[in-house]
Specification:
The chain has 609 residues and is an alpha+beta fold. The protein is built from 15 helices and 15 strands. The strands form four sheets. A six-stranded antiparallel beta sheet has the order 2-1-5-4-3-7. GO terms for molecular function: phosphorelay sensor kinase activity. Keywords: Kinase, Phosphoprotein, Transferase, Two-component regulatory system.
């Protein structure tokens, strides 16, 4: 068949190649037109995005320059707010403050305070505190005397000794706190003692960096204190601040602010960078400065600037496009979006899509025409081959029983009286004639059903009776012993009795032809299906059907090739079975098949009562 189709295939191939080359060339032209149009829109957008990026870099650099003094001041003074500032120096983060109390529940500072309070009353104290407490009692006595000069001298002597003999924070802080509480007299509290709460000692008394006041000292010492100790000192410092009417709101705010968390920087930083759209950082030699920024406000300002310069329409806006956590300001990923540009791009894509669809439709139409031409030619030659094969097969099948009938008849006529073995010749003549009759009946029935000329005569058919008829049909038609087993009980089918007989006869004869066992075992089982009808399983013990052939065996004139002696047949048996089931609005298919045999599943519609 391929040789017959070759001229048609060559002509269609060359035609499709020429058409394909033309369509591809046309599509390239359409694609280039789209790219040119998109490039014009893109170039304006890129220019505006570069301008917006430069404006953003300038605005952020100016903001850092303005805020840098406050940032540096927050590093030196723990009472100053540090929210929104970032400083990393030699690998240590100073801002935002991440000072957490050390782990544990011990309270050495609170214990020291309690011990000193008792020692102040009974005079018993460890060595480091004996002189301090002695001087503290002297200052308290001078304060009670009302002599300002004496009080000032005693307090100054106490503070000089205190500055000259520093102690660890868990001892220094409780003593300083006790000293302030012991000497505070409201409005009459000495100025040097009042200064110990917030401002710290004067420089000549060891103040400034070393002793900037209780509020600052406890914040700086926080990592060396446990949480219970820190809470104890913080509460008493707030109390004494209130008693002395010293500002303490900033101290409370810094207590709540401390431990806000570390800011993780990506490595390496390539110049000024935006982090998580919330922080702007500038790296230097050994440090990194940063500010918390409101990107929404900055982008809104950029949008207003571009609108004011008539670079974008009133409905346009500047926004951050998709990007990672870290955005180098060299390429911040700004997008300038306007509905007009989106509409222009959509229009470009729509025109391109329409042209592409036209090209694709032309290609599909040409391919469909070529495929239809090939299918038509193939069907034509296939029909011719099937017709030839059918004529050849039917001629062979008709010739064989006719030759047998003629030979057996002549022999019976001449030798019936002389040869005892000729006694079964009449039976063999009848069997050959029956085979011929069955073949002709199959052909005629197939033709009538295929042409829609069979008038279905449905009736109640008992399956047990149909199985009995099958026994009679096979007894006279085949030479091999057949054993039929049935498990159909009293199932009835709403079907044409003659077609059911023909259906079972074809399945039974096929089972006998494609079989190498003796006896041939046929099993018919019925399973009623509520609401539909019944499923009949017709099983044999034949050679089986390969899985890839399960559907092909139902094709017209298709004959299965099996190992062993040639099997005669017209290739219409299973094709006729499928048409019979289709006429009953049922179905037939191979349920299972293997070396042990084949099972066909026949599904009949519901019986009408």
């Amino acid at each position: 068949m391929l040789r017959r189709l070759l001229p048609t295939l060559l002509a269609l191939g060359f035609g499709l190649l020429a058409l394909g080359w033309g369509l591809v060339s046309l599509q390239r032209i359409f694609t280039q037109e789209r790219e040119d149009a998109r490039a014009q829109v893109r170039s304006r957008r890129v220019a505006l995005e570069q301008l917006a990026a430069e404006s953003l870099r300038t605005a952020l650099a100016q903001l850092m320059k303005t805020r840098l003094p406050n940032l540096n001041a927050a590093v030196g003074d723990p009472l100053l707010p540090a929210e929104g500032y970032y400083l990393l120096f030699r690998g240590h983060q100073f801002l935002p403050r991440v000072d957490w109390p050390r782990e544990g529940t011990d309270v050495p500072a609170q214990a020291t305070y309690t011990m000193l309070a008792h020692a102040l009353e009974d005079g018993l104290a460890p060595a480091p505190f004996q002189e301090r407490l002695s001087r503290l009692r002297a200052a308290g006595a001078a304060l009670l005397s009302g002599n300002e000069a004496r009080t000032e001298a005693a307090v100054e002597a106490l503070l000089r000794y205190h500055a000259a003999h520093p102690l660890p924070p868990d001892q220094e802080l409780p003593f300083t706190l006790l000293m302030v509480e012991y000497l505070q007299r409201g409005g009459d509290t000495p100025l040097l003692i009042r200064a110990l709460v917030r401002e710290g000692l004067p420089e000549e008394l060891g103040g400034m960096a070393r002793d900037p006041g209780l509020q600052r000292n406890v914040l700086r010492a926080r990592p060396q204190l446990t949480q219970p100790d820190f809470d104890f000192l913080q509460a008493r410092i707030v109390g004494v601040s209130r008693a002395l009417v010293e500002p303490h709101d900033a101290f409370v705010a810094r207590v709540q602010e401390a431990g806000a968390g570390a800011l993780v920087l990506p490595e390496p930083l390539d110049g000024p960078t935006l982090l998580a759209e919330q922080w702007y950082v500038e790296p230097a030699a050994e440090q990194v400065h940063g500010l918390a920024v409101d990107m929404s406000a900055l982008l809104a300002d950029l949008t207003q600037e571009l609108r004011g310069r008539n670079l974008i329409p009133r409905d346009g806006q500047v926004r951050l496009g998709p990007g990672g956590v870290a955005r180098p300001l060299k390429h911040p990923g700004l997008e300038v979006a306007t509905p007009g540009w989106a509409a222009a791009e959509a229009d470009i894509e729509a025109r391109y899509g329409l042209k592409t669809l036209l090209v694709a439709a032309c290609g599909a139409l040409a391919s469909a025409i070529a495929a239809l031409a090939v299918v038509a030619q193939q069907r034509k030659y296939r029909f011719v081959e099937l017709k030839s094969d059918f004529v050849s097969t039917v001629s062979h099948e008709l010739r064989t029983p006719l030759a047998s009938i003629r030979l057996l008849g002549e022999t019976l006529e001449r030798r019936l009286g002389k040869i005892p073995e000729a006694g079964d010749y009449p039976t063999r003549i009848v069997r050959a004639a029956e085979g011929l009759h069955f073949l002709v009946e199959n052909i005629l029935s197939f033709n009538r059903i295929d042409k829609g000329r069979w008038a279905l005569r449905p009736a109640h058919v008992r399956l047990e009776e149909a199985v009995g008829t099958l026994r009679e049909d096979l007894q006279d038609a085949v030479t091999v012993p057949v054993e039929i087993r049935s498990q159909v009980e009293d199932v009835e089918l709403d079907a044409d009795a003659s077609l059911v007989r023909m259906l079972f006869a074809n399945l039974g004869r096929n089972a006998c032809l494609y079989n190498q066992r003796s006896p041939v075992v046929l099993t018919v089982r019925a399973y009623p299906q509520p609401g539909y009808g019944a499923t009949v399983l017709f099983s044999d013990n034949g050679v089986g059907i390969p899985p890839e052939e399960w559907e092909r065996v139902f094709q017209d004139f298709y004959r299965l090739t099996t190992p062993g002696p040639e099997v005669h047949g017209s290739g219409l048996g299973l094709a006729l079975c499928r048409r019979i089931m289709g006429l009953h609005q049922g179905s037939i298919q191979v349920a299972s098949s293997g070396p042990e045999g084949t099972t066909f599943a026949l599904t009949f519609p519901e019986t009408r009562r």
